[in-house]
Design brief:
6 helices, Nuclear Transport Factor 2, Chain: A
């Protein structure tokens, strides 16, 4: 009888673990999909597309018009190509009825120096521009294709996502809105204790 009870307990524990793992995989898949949909929207011709994926409450800190102007400026810059890929999704942290996560991603920034020089009003040599980028990103993260005059910069960045019952889905929160937690904001979109944990991940 005791052996039977132990077997039942073990089976229940295994089922609980399997369900938890399955839920985590599904949630991570939702976060991945959100990230790539958002990135695609930032490259869209429609500047309003990205707002579908952004957490609404952050617009009290950064007006929508600022994001629209930024999108327009990036679209008018034909010299750069961005290629993003998720590197790591942090542990999902839950407080009350809200969940928080940090998405770290790698990106390649490809610059056509021929087109850049043609469009620039400054006489700026390739060599001096490359050296400047090496100082910013590190020499090991810079590759120059001399034949095609293209510069590739490897970089990493991060973004936050929030799940709130109000939306019943994950939404993107821009890091510039929450900062590093050292400056007190009128709107605490991510509780400071959670932000500290996410910033360490």
């Amino acid at each position: 009888m005791k052996a039977t009870c132990k077997k039942i307990i073990i089976i229940l524990l295994l089922l609980t673990v399997n369900v938890s793992c399955s839920q985590l995989k599904n949630e991570n898949k939702e976060i991945e999909d959100l990230f790539y949909q958002y990135i695609k929207a930032t490259k869209s011709d429609d500047g309003e597309e990205q707002f579908k994926f952004l957490y609404e409450e952050q617009f009290d800190e950064i007006p929508k018009n600022f994001i629209r102007e930024l999108h327009k400026a990036l679209k008018e810059e034909p010299l750069q190509k961005r290629d993003e890929e998720i590197y790591r999704i942090s542990e999902i942290i839950e407080k009350g009825n809200t969940k928080y996560v940090k998405i770290t991603f790698n990106q390649n920034l490809i610059i056509d120096l021929k087109k850049k020089n043609q469009a620039s009003q400054y006489d700026y040599s390739d060599e001096s521009y490359i050296k400047e980028q090496e100082e910013i990103y590190g020499k090991n993260n810079i590759t120059f294709d001399e034949k095609n005059s293209k510069l590739t910069i490897k970089d990493s960045d991060f973004i936050f996502a929030i799940f709130h019952p109000k939306y019943n889905t994950w939404k993107i929160l821009l890091p510039a809105v929450v900062g590093d937690g050292s400056i007190q904001s009128d709107v605490e979109l991510i509780p400071s204790e959670i932000l500290n944990i996410l910033n360490k991940s």
